[in-house]
Amino acid sequence: MSVTALRSQEDLFDELDGSKEGAPSFFVQWKGTDVCGDFRCTCGLLSHICGAEFMYSIRCGRCGKRFAIQHTLFLLECKDDETDGCCVDAVDDGVNC
Asked: Distance between CA 38 and CA 51 in Å, rounded?
């Protein structure tokens, strides 16, 4: 069961009174790694992108619209049995970015 099937990002912002401030988040720092993902455009195009390196924006191959990719992912709290594993533990190393 995926977390996104349980709650949407919009639900999270509703819980935070519509504000992203203070929301749990993850700032993506590209380190030369490839990214794969599914792209959905407002025109209806669905496309799988795989092996893209340093992807800061994406252009729809159907309508030509270009979208900036946010560097911050807002996180949805979940229970241990609600994800497929591959969990990384964040530690308090005394570093505030």
From this structure: 12
